[in-house]
Design a protein that fits this description.
alpha+beta; 38% helix
Length: 100
């Protein structure tokens, strides 16, 4: 799920180092997977906005799938092909067709 986060330099007295510290603390604490960032001006203030994926939420999904034994949806199809007694799958040729 995508989320939105905004930072306004007015919140830190327009200090660039304070704004950096706030943004860095958020990044270190949340570990967001940033998909889009935008910097714009609001009067004399800098606005930084981020669209991101919450990696903690992604990790929880992966961990819950691992605990329930759910793997990638395609894995069972590949397993079935491998356990097939036929020497090759009719859908995928063993050798590529000749180049003309």
């Amino acid at each position: 799920m995508y989320r939105f986060k905004g930072f306004d330099s007015a919140e830190c007295g327009d200090s660039m180092s304070a704004l950096e510290a706030i943004v860095n603390a958020w990044m270190e604490g949340e570990h967001p997977r940033i998909r889009h960032v935008c910097q714009s001006m609001r009067g004399e203030h800098i606005l930084l906005t981020f669209v991101y994926e919450d990696t903690k939420q992604l990790e929880q999904r992966v961990s819950s799938h691992a605990q329930t034994g759910v793997t990638g949806g395609y894995q069972r199809f590949f397993d079935e092909d491998l356990s097939d007694d036929r020497p090759t799958s009719p859908r995928i040729p063993a050798t590529p067709p000749p180049m003309h």
